[in-house]
């Protein structure tokens, strides 16, 4: 997203005046960041850009204005996403300048890291001319009584004349009882509070958790808490929080599917009376059970943006402010009548002569030539009435990023195939904003602390999959899909970009074992199913892996997914895959459920065959690895969940995809006399 598109909705006359800027940005942290701190929104001197992650952070910061909305939130995003820039600099400066917060206490893994963030914050107060002009009390350090010296301007603490204080410390620093006078922190920021994997261990992670929960969280039990970071180690604190967020999403999905099944009979009984009474009931069929019903997300469809005066955005932007102080803007043009407001608003958005110049040059030229005297009393009154609570402020979440990056041709075929599914698995959206909800009591004990501490999880993977199965970058202007696809097979990518770490001491697959290519011709295809008997989150997943024997004699893994479906829903998904990949055999492991699966898949559109495994999982995995090492197995594309299990095995919570993959591969490669699976024809 181009921030200047957002900026273009506001009248240039107001942006050019100090009072106009203050009033417009009072309840709008995104506008504040663009106007005052736009240089932080550029990467390598390129144009400004925003990801959905940044828009959501700005929307979240609005909760700081209301003490009753205080909550605990964890934002998990790829490395170099601008997490520290937004939560240590842009948003705190906005909140402090407008008096929304009085005391911020920030913590990082080391004291040096925390003080560097504070120095960046303080540097803006010292050098940002526009900020210094509009908020003189905020940028001025607090002087101590009759003594002409600063109260606190150290590397760890600053206190400003408007009553704002900012403390930055290492997470292990002594912080119990932290307060200034009677004021305790009203915002606690924790940024990258875990060490890198080489200096970290499960024991150290447990100690760090106790420090955070017992020492920092209760500096003020009514404060806002924002924890932000990237995973540094398998089962680190951030990794545990991500797992809970995904458990919540899966729980909601399973609950909705169960509701769908339970309501189908009742719906059929009510259908006749509903038609008679002409009453519309909400349908819970699978076709209407979209992800928007399951998770709270800010990735909505792009809507018309309304500015502070409730007027629609035009296609034109704001002219360069080089002409903001020209004689054409005389006081006589702005009389005290109500009509002047409409005239002022109708003249806005007359085009952007030079978009970058607007921020870099034009806006800052107004520092020494302010146009406050051009605002009439009527205009000032109208501006002061702007509020979040009146429903007229801009909704940041209504703006959606788009990815125009062309997918590599290698992946186009698979993407097209995925779009044909009638039933979609839950997408890993750019942000899975998981509301607090009841989770099955059997959740892992080591994760229970996340629920007990009421932490809301916001997870942003680097590769976003929409409800149609299409992939895009979480921040296209920063990293295109071509770059992400180039690196996605590595363990460092899994940990730093997807926040799905792989155990470094795994004993089986590594990155070199997986070869991505497509075969010219597929001779025989099967679906290997490792089913679960329940959709409860405590159970394993149902794994579906499509495996084909190709004309070159190699076996190709063409599709892999894990989901929580049973009964008719599972049968329908398998039928979809049969049609999509021209499958001749459904090969089902019956260790759990026994003959149940023959009944479940009765009437399937392919041959059915069951297998009861007697060999240990480790032996089956080792045999599958041997096939890979002998270059007998290829993948047609990257399957993130399968690869995560392969790289982590045997230290992995779920290994269903490995089981299903190994079973299917062994079926084709175990002997040359396997019976040929003939596809059934239905009329």
TrEMBL record:
Residues 323-332, 385-398 have a biased composition (Low complexity). Keywords: Viral release from host cell. Residues 316-353, 378-407 are annotated as: Disordered. InterPro entries: P-loop_NTPase, Terminase_6C. Residues 527-664 form the Terminase large subunit gp17-like C-terminal domain. This is Terminase large subunit gp17-like C-terminal domain-containing protein. Residues 334-349 have a biased composition (Polar residues).
């Amino acid at each position: 997203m181009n921030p200047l598109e957002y900026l273009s909705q506001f009248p240039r006359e107001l942006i050019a005046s100090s009072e106009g800027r203050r009033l417009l940005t009072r309840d709008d942290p995104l506008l504040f960041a663009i106007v005052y701190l736009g240089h932080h929104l550029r990467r390598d001197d390129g144009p400004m850009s925003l990801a959905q992650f940044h828009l959501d952070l700005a929307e979240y910061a609005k909760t700081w204005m209301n003490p009753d909305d205080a909550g605990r939130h964890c934002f998990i995003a790829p490395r170099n996403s601008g997490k520290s820039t937004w939560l240590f600099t842009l948003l705190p400066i906005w909140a402090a300048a407008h008096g929304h917060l009085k005391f911020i206490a920030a913590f990082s893994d080391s004291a040096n890291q925390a003080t560097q963030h504070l120095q960046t914050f303080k540097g803006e107060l010292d050098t940002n001319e526009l900020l210094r002009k509009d908020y003189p009390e905020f940028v001025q350090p607090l002087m101590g009584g009759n003594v002409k010296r600063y109260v606190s301007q150290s590397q760890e603490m600053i206190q400003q004349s408007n009553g704002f204080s900012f403390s930055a410390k290492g997470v292990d620093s002594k912080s119990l009882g932290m307060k200034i006078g009677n004021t305790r922190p009203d915002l606690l920021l924790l940024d990258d509070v875990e060490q890198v994997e080489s200096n970290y261990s499960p024991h150290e992670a447990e100690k760090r958790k106790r420090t955070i929960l017992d020492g920092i969280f209760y500096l003020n039990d009514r404060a806002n808490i924002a924890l932000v970071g990237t995973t540094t180690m398998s089962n680190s604190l951030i990794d545990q929080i991500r797992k809970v967020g995904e458990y919540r999403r899966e729980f909601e999905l399973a609950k909705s599917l169960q509701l769908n099944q339970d309501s189908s009979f009742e719906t059929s009984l009510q259908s006749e009376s509903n038609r008679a009474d002409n009453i519309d009931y909400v349908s819970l069929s699978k076709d209407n059970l979209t992800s928007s019903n399951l998770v709270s997300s800010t990735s909505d469809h792009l809507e018309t943006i309304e500015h502070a005066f409730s007027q629609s955005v035009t296609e034109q932007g704001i002219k360069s402010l080089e002409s903001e102080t020209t004689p054409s803007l005389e006081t006589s043009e702005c009389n005290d009548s109500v009509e002047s407001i409409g005239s002022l608003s109708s003249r806005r958005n007359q085009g952007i002569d030079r978009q970058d110049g607007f921020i870099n040059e034009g806006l800052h030229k107004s520092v020494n030539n302010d146009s406050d005297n051009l605002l009439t009393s009527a205009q000032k009154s109208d501006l002061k009435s702007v509020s979040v609570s009146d429903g007229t402020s801009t909704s940041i979440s209504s703006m959606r990023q788009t990815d125009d990056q062309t997918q590599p041709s290698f992946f186009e075929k698979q993407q097209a195939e995925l779009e044909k599914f009638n039933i979609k698995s839950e997408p890993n959206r750019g942000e899975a904003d998981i509301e607090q909800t009841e989770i099955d009591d059997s959740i892992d004990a080591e994760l229970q602390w996340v629920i007990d501490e009421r932490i809301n999880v916001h997870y942003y993977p680097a590769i976003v999959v929409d409800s149609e199965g299409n992939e895009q970058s979480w921040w296209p202007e920063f990293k295109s899909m071509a770059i992400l696809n180039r690196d996605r097979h590595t363990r460092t990518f899994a940990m730093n970009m997807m926040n799905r770490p792989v155990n470094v001491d795994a004993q089986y697959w590594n990155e070199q074992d997986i070869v991505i290519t497509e075969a010219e011709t597929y001779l025989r295809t099967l679906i290997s199913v490792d089913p679960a008997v329940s959709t409860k989150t405590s159970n394993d997943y149902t794994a579906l892996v499509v495996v084909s024997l190709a004309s070159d004699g190699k076996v190709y893994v063409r599709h892999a997914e894990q989901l929580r479906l049973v009964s008719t829903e599972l049968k329908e998904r398998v039928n979809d895959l049969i049609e999509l990949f021209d499958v001749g055999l459904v090969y089902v492991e019956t260790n759990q459920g026994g003959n149940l699966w023959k009944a479940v898949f009765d009437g399937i559109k392919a041959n059915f065959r069951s297998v009861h495994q007697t060999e240990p999982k480790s032996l089956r995995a080792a045999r599958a690895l041997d096939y890979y090492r002998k270059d007998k197995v290829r993948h047609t594309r990257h399957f993130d969940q399968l690869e995560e299990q392969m790289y982590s095995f045997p230290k992995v919570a779920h290994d269903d995809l490995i089981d299903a993959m190994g079973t299917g591969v062994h079926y084709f490669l175990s002997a040359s006399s396997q019976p040929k699976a003939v596809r059934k024809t239905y009329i």
